[in-house]
Structures are given as structure tokens and as C-alpha cells.
Write a structure and sequence with these properties.
It is built from six helices and eight strands; from the N terminus they run βββαβααβαββαβα. Strands 1-2-4-3-5-6-7-8 form an eight-stranded mixed beta sheet, with helices on both faces. It starts with a strand and ends with a helix.
Length: 234
């Protein structure tokens, strides 16, 4: 069961859309799905659908709306070039504000069990935003897949009160060994943080049918994500 939700930006600059997938029961805790640099495309919608199958109200906001609304790109050629162009123009701070607005809008939905708290699961760009969402919002559990640039934001870790789960690809060229080492050193050992490194896996290893898809690692990461969400929000 899918629909579109309109969300008011917290800075009053306009409205943006979000894809909403409901669980079979029609009700559950909210999990916001953070897009890759390719927009809320078929892949991200399928991720939201899978989290709905797990019992969550899954909401995937259009985080590129301030640049161009309704972005849905493929992974090769001109689409890939456009994705990186949008990524270069993207305001990360405004993106986190829009995630916070999405979490607030989700809490008002009659289908959402707001008392349970909410979660966030993001991929690529959304993986970085997962870390910042954990640091800057009251989200109960935030999960990031192969986020880029987290090593430059470690000072914000002191603000994280909920649970943070990071899935790190060992062979990710966008998160080389020195960046990975900094993340593990800066965040490792904290009781509310789970850091997992996937040997031999490349960036986007969890994107089904992608060129770097690794099914075993993707399924293990999903199991870990669901376990963390269930501990945090049910």
C-alpha cells in the first residue's frame, strides 16, 4: 500500500513530496528512508516497500526538491553525471532539516505509532545523512549504509543519544582506508553505536541488481538493521 505525502519545509520555503509504504497491518512505527544521489527512484521505493513488509510505515522524502523535484535517475551515462551534479549542489544541512520535517510529519500520521519513536535508514548520500540525523534529531535509531564524508563530522558524535548503526564497505573508493580507520577510531566502543565493516565489498553493495551488489553481505546488513530498529522502536 503506497501513497504520496506532502510535507511542509520547516524553514517555510515550500513543500516536498515523500513516498509512503504502509505495512500489511496498516499501522506501525515510522522509518524514514534516505535516498542515494539518484533520487527517490525505483530502487529507493523498493527499499521502502521492504521496510513496510517488516512492519514499518516507510517514508522516503524527496531530498533533492530544493534543486529539482521528483528526481528519479538511473546509474549510468547522463543520469549518473546528473546525479553527481546534484550531489555537488546539495545542501547537507538543509537536507537534515528536511529529514527532521519528515520525522515530524510522520509522527502526525494516524498510521504511525509515534509513541514507539522513529527510525532512519539511508544509503550513500543517505548514509551520511543517517549519521547527521542521529546527531541533530531525536531519532531513536539511525542506520547508514556506505556514507561518504562521515570522517569529517566526528565532532558531532557527542550529540548522538539514540542508536547509530553504520555499514561500511571495505573496498569503497569513496571511503578509503584512512577514512574508515578514522570512523572506527572515533566512534568505536560507544555502547549506542554499531559499526560493521564488510570485507571485499564495494560502495552500494546493498543495491539489488547493482554492479557491486553482494547478496550475502546485503542480507546480513539488512538483518542487523532490522535487529537494531526492533530493539529501538519495536
Amino acid at each position: 500500500m503506497a501513497s504520496t505525502l506532502q510535507i511542509n519545509a520547516s524553514d517555510g520555503s515550500g513543500q516536498f513530496n515523500a513516498y509512503v509504504a504502509l505495512p500489511e497491518s496498516g499501522r506501525g512505527p515510522a522509518v524514514v528512508i534516505g535516498q542515494e544521489i539518484f533520487g527517490v527512484n525505483a530502487n529507493i521505493r523498493s527499499v521502502a516497500d521492504r521496510y513496510a513488509e517488516e512492519g514499518y510505515v516507510a517514508i522516503a522524502p524527496d531530498l533533492f526538491w530544493r534543486l529539482e523535484s521528483g528526481v528519479q535517475l538511473g546509474y549510468e551515462g547522463a543520469d549518473r553525471e546528473k546525479a553527481f551534479e546534484l550531489f555537488g549542489q546539495f545542501d547537507v544541512d538543509k537536507g537534515v532539516e528536511d529529514i527532521a520535517a519528515t520525522l515530524a510529519a510522520a509522527a502526525r500520521l494516524p498510521e504511525v505509532d509515534a509513541a514507539a519513536g522513529a527510525g532512519f535508514v539511508g544509503f550513500c548520500l543517505g548514509g551520511k545523512l543517517a549519521y547527521l540525523t542521529a546527531a541533530r534529531t531525536g531519532v531513536a535509531c539511525s542506520v547508514g549504509y556506505y556514507g561518504v564524508g562521515i570522517e569529517h563530522l566526528l565532532a558531532e558524535a557527542a550529540n548522538i543519544r539514540g542508536r547509530l548503526v553504520l555499514h561500511i564497505a571495505e573496498a569503497d573508493p569513496f571511503c578509503p582506508a584512512e577514512a574508515r580507520a578514522a570512523i572506527l577510531a572515533g566512534l568505536g566502543g560507544r555502547p549506542n553505536m554499531e559499526l560493521y565493516v564488510y570485507p571485499g565489498c564495494d560502495h552500494a553493495f546493498a543495491r539489488v541488481d547493482g554492479m557491486h551488489y553482494e547478496q550475502a553481505a546485503a542480507e546480513l546488513a539488512h538483518e542487523r538493521s532490522i535487529a537494531a530498529l526492533r530493539r529501538s522502536i519495536g
